[in-house]
Amino acid sequence: MTFEELGVSAPLCRAVEELGFDSPMPVQEKVIPHLLENEGDVVALAQTGTGKTAAFGLPVIQRVDLSRDVPQALVLSPTRELCLQIASDLADFSKYIPELKVIPVYGGSSIESQIRAVRKGVQIVVATPGRLIDLINRGVVSLADVHTVVLDEADEMLNMGFLDSLNAILEHVPDNRKMLMFSATMPPEISKISKRYMHDPVEIVIGSRNEGAENVRHIYYMVNARDKYLALKRVVDNSPDIYAIVFCRTRRDTQEIAENLIRDGYNAEALHGDLSQQQRDIVMKKFRDRVTRILVATDVAARGLDVDNLTHVINYGLPDDTAVYTHRSGRTGRAGKTGVSVAIIHSREKGRLREIERIIGKTFERREVPTPEHIIEKQLFALADRLERVEVDDEAMARYTPAVIKKLGWLSSEDLIKRMLTMEFTRLLDYYKDAPKIDFIDEKPAKKREARGKRGEGREAPEDFPDKFDKDRRTASKGMERIYVNAGKRDGFFAGNLIETLNKAVSGPRVDVGRIDLMPAYSLFDVKKADARRVVAALKGMDFLGKRLYSEIAEAEKDYAHAATRRSREKQYAANDTAAPFRKKGRSPRRK
């Protein structure tokens, strides 16, 4: 199948051939003929990187009346970056159609210059929703002659809160226009838009609904929560040619992990909502130019990014929404290339992992965190490969080689190789010489314990008799301090609540939490010694679901198992003592 056989005009075929498109991709084979020949609208479910822009861009360009300088086609995208990328691609496709005018309009740039460009005449408008509404309200853009509307990454636009904006824009386009909606997933809101604004839409599915990209391998590492950053560094070190996005849940995590990576010698940058548009543009230019090899980003900041040839997407923890994971992993393995989606998780995220597997129809491979020996060997062989592939300019080197050979001639080839490798890998060798051990969480013992628990039902459990089992829980890990807090599982206080409470209460640098032991009436957890006192001070007096928190640095010999019970009794006695004088006089303590 060729583009010409799909009905694409000769100038467009010539342009796409020069861009390296040998034959249409599946999404293009299905969408292009429908937009060129058939009536009715289209809902296309396809992953990022499957050739969507050409699928809608080529027929949209072909359907434009070049004799009229009015907006005839509208393409809506969720972000500035994607808006610019689509406009650039449309310009490339229309290389041999000089009369065609395509203009991107988006926030974060001068609206006056965009107004001037629109007033000079335009046939295709590529826009972000907010800026387009602004131009409509100013009377600059009229959509009265629009015959084709494309919503690209529609689910992303809904996730970003653009539903009201989309409704407002679509009210301005003619009722008889053709509409195409691209989405990686099919949330209920997409169905509502299609029912409200589309006419008998045809659903085109590339692959299966909500499935991940075919060329992406999904792997995971399960480590203790305190070891996640160390595991991240080892994953990066184990991939010498890595070009990756690391996804974090919060802006704070994003900035902190990026700063730590930069401090540790990696080419990394942070991308999150606290950056100005100018800072964001600089970060993205460095990443696209591969000056930056690792982009640490939040999901919101990374929406709509169009970056090719990513080797890895790394999930620093799993998102709550499977659609978010689908978008993350779909950023690698694009355009027929292979990619890897990595999840670095702790044991409490295992259930979430299995749910994602079920929905996307993929199985995650369990991997052990790379060992220092394996990483160093991988890096050495990568250097050897680069040396083998390097192109030597004999003529340019001729004047320098004799002097260098004379200087180093006393060294054997083996000595030269050893010295070169030592010089290249000093930092790596020094770091991994005393590298801390990353615990590999084995799932099998947990299954055995569960089986033993079923066989021994009715026996005493540690939580039923905490005084017998509390000794080890009072001892902190090496370099850490153990903290006691008077809230436990009976209070609905779990690990997530603890982390959330700490984030709210403790000011200054983020507190890293180590081992957590949750008991019915209290909890014990580890923090770095330097953070212990400010954590205790911050937690004291905090309110958790109506319970006033008390915290202290745990003492190894103190019986915390009954501390909460004692405090409850003391409060009860105190209340009784306060009430007693009133009762002696026959009065209620609530009366004056």
Fold topology:
Layout lengths: L9 H9 L7 H12 L4 E4 L6 H11 L10 E4 L3 H14 L8 E4 L5 H9 L4 E4 L1 H9 L10 E4 L2 H6 L3 H8 L7 E6 L4 H10 L4 E4 L10 E7 L5 H10 L6 E5 L2 H13 L4 E4 L5 H12 L5 E5 H4 L9 E4 L6 H8 L9 E7 L4 H11 L4 E2 L5 H18 L4 H4 L3 H8 L4 H21 L9 H13 L10 H4 L10 E6 L9 H11 L7 E6 L4 E6 L3 H8 L3 E2 L2 E2 L2 E3 L9 H22 L8
Parallel strand pairs: 1-6, 1-7, 2-4, 2-5, 3-4, 5-6, 8-13, 8-14, 9-11, 9-12, 10-11, 12-13
Antiparallel strand pairs: 15-17, 15-20, 16-17, 18-19
Helix pairs in contact: 2-3, 3-4, 6-8, 16-19
Structural commentary:
By secondary structure, the protein is of the alpha/beta class. The strands form four sheets. Strands 3-4-2-5-6-1-7 form a seven-stranded parallel β-sheet, sandwiched between helices.
What is the global morphology? globular
| Helix percentage | 40-55%
Provide the residue-averaged pLDDT.
Answer: 80
Low-confidence stretches: 208-212, 445-471, 568-592
Tell me about the largest β-sheet. 7 strands, parallel
Distance between the termini: 92 Å
Radius of gyration: 31 Å
The structure class reads: alpha/beta
As laid out across the biggest beta sheet, the strand order is 3-4-2-5-6-1-7
Share in β-strands = 15-25%
What is the number of strand segments? 20
- Our count of helices gives 24
Features:
592 residues; alpha/beta; seven-stranded parallel beta sheet; 24 helices; 20 strands; 43% helix; disordered C terminus
